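Hello forum,

I keep getting stuck at the same step: I have a sequence, I want structure tokens, and every attempt I make locally crashes halfway through. Rather than fight my setup again tonight, could one of you with a working pipeline run this one for me? It's a single chain of 395 residues.
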Amino acid sequence: MSIKIYNTLSRKKEDFKTLQSGKVSMYVCGPTVYDKAHVGHAMSALVFDIVRRYLEYQDYEVSHVTNYTDVDDRIIQRAAVEGVDAKEIAQRYIDEYDQHLKDLNILPASQYPRATEEIDRIIEAVADLVEKGYAYPSNGDVYYRVEKFPGYGKLSGRKIDDMEAGFRIDVDDRKEHPMDFALWKAAKLGEPFTEIKKYGELFKFLVAFWLYNDGIGTIIKMATIYGKEINIGQIHLIGAILMVQFVGIPFSFAFGWLAKRIGTKKSIYLSLGVYTLISIGGYFMYSAIHFWILGFAVALVQGGSQALSRSLYGRMVPKAQSAEFFSFFSVSGKLAGFFGPLIFGLVSQMMGNSRLGIVSLVIFFISGALLLTRVDEEKGIRVAKEADALAAQNA
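Reply #2:
Ran it on my machine without issues. Output:
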């Protein structure tokens, strides 16, 4: 007897056909483990347990996967209230949930992937959606652009215009459309900071990054202000800035090649040396050609310094904490960019022009590079691996 199943897309019952003969893959959304399980969790688990048992009764080989969402604002908030690590909160409620399933005589899933174990793949998927225009960043968060996908709402049979914003999707001025939903949420600054400080080399690198990245961001932000002050035309200003974006892409790959040969830290030192020369060269800039030359110099190192910094940071981050640590890296880097424009503005006001303001940014590159020399990359990587090994033992 053939099995018929209701197809939500076609709105009718259809013959059950598997992609592989005799094999069924079944993915069931699991709980977000921030609190005790409730009857809704039990219903979902019980319903799909019955489906699985029937398929196995019909001699199908079933691969049943249920995920645990073990990183979430509510988990972090509860951890902060209780004064414990977020991983401890997640593990507590995972253990409780597993026991409930046993008490209900529900078969364990074939696999229980955790969100924190798939962060690298999640980042790749989100980045791919952004690149293709299906998602967009906004203040550290990344949102799915629902209007980009013509088939959005097809399964539920609802149209975007008929959906009520705020019912299940938060209303937020940062969104392009009220129904856009978050794919990635930036960390709140206070949450992972205490954890990062436990990893000494990682923390030292983060502070070094804040310093030199502040200088990098300020050069880019203040370039047009300085250019206008010395009467460089708008066409040259815009053209040079566009050139930086396009030329910077191939050179970022070149820096990756260079890092493999001389090391990541040395490559970052090289980029900071170039930025230092750019700051000094800015003092002697008088014409559009000078502006283009300095813009090209920025293009040589901008993408490479950013990518290598993220790469070095990532190698010293324990995998289980990569989500919150990388979110903190992105958001804090932007907020740390306050002092560069402040110093630039103060020096420019005191001296009556922006020439010395540009030169003053040298302090960010030199101080960042000096602190970077104190970072023991190998020790940082070793500590991260030890933390991962300990987490695997306790899993």
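Residues 165-169 have pLDDT under 50 and may be disordered. If your local run keeps crashing, start a new thread with the error log.
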